Amino acid sequence: MAEAIVFSGEVAVITGAGGGLGRAYAHMLGDRGCRIVVNDVGRPHGDNVPVAQSVVDELRAKGIEAVADDHNAITDGAAIIATALDAFGAVDIVVNNAGIGAGSPMGPNSAEEWQETIDATLQSSITVTGAAWPHLIERGGGRIVMTGSPAMFGASTTIPYSATKSSMYGFTRSVAAAGRRYGISANNIMPSALTRLTKSLPPGPMAQLFADHYPPEDVASFVTWLCHRSCTVSGESFSVGGGRAARVVLSENRGVLVDDQAPESWAAHVDELMSLDEVVFPLSMNDEVTWQAHTLGKSVPAELAPGGPLDWNRKPRP
Questions:
Q1: DSSP calls for 26-60
Q2: Which residue, of 13, 65, 184, 226, is most buried by count of CB atoms within 10 Å of its CB?
């Protein structure tokens, strides 16, 4: 029987938590014992209560300790973390959920659109994570969750969004590596859920699929596990939705070595170059470079040679 996922007053900062996935995270983490900082710059609606405060009111009605924060995660990460410190004296969990959708194909995309998308997802995660970092170290560790997207697999009509969300894969790997010595874990989720973004899809089969099968609460349960002290996973990306989660990895095949620099030599080996009969799964830049050297027949440090730590990643594709 797995350990119960219960928190002991840990402080969770959740960006973009005024609705959708962020709101679902706030409720589930709060229900399980976290104190919550609900960050969102969303405009007031209904009775003119800011969206962050609306979620805080919901949480407090259930007896959950929570505070609202309306600072911009892109530029005011330090202020968001200060809200957590002022209210609760600590920060233990950071869920970088803030982001926007940007739907456009390739072409004369405006620089403003690209920058807005990059800022809302990547820069906000950098800013808030960076502000929390020294406090997580001081606490002896912590949990960080990034938010990517299945758009990482390619989305021709939302290229700025796809490109920015794809960056979360490498960002998470690097943050996890940097945090390992301090007990800080970082993971990236690629959620499928019915949110304000997916509700804006044009009517059709895809929109109906989200409405019928992908409630935000299914993603919230997975994020809650990632945030718990019992979770030892770090540096990973997961496709999550509908009660399913799957590990997402980059892989490469054995590669092709040519004896000359003629372009025709590569063309002659296209089938081998594209083969997926045998692939490996590098978990870091060092893994990838070492694998290159090994396939070239070069000498590599003994601890990284076949049979060393990298070897467990070398699994033939079924």
A1: HHHHHHTT-EEEEE--PPPBTTTB-HHHHHHHHHH
A2: 13
Q: List pLDDT tens digits, range 189-243.
A: 988 765 565 545 556 655 555 555 566 678 899 999 999 999 999 999 998 888 8
Order of all β-strands in the sheet with 252-253: 252-253, 279-280, 314-315
Assess contact for 108 and 31: CB atoms under 8 A: no
- Residues forming the active site: 161
Please name the residue that has the structure tokens 């089969």.
205
CA 227 vs CA 11, 101, 105, 146, 220: distances in Å: 11, 25, 35, 11, 10
Q: Sign of dihedral through CA atoms 153, 195, 117, 29?
A: negative
Bridge partners of 147, per DSSP, are 189
* Matching residue, tokens 């620089």: 111
Extract the tokens encoding 177.
Answer: 């590596």
Task: Choose between 109 and 210: higher pLDDT.
Answer: 109
- Structural domains for the chain: 11-248 (3.40.50.720), 252-315 (no CATH)
List the structure tokens of 88: 């609760």
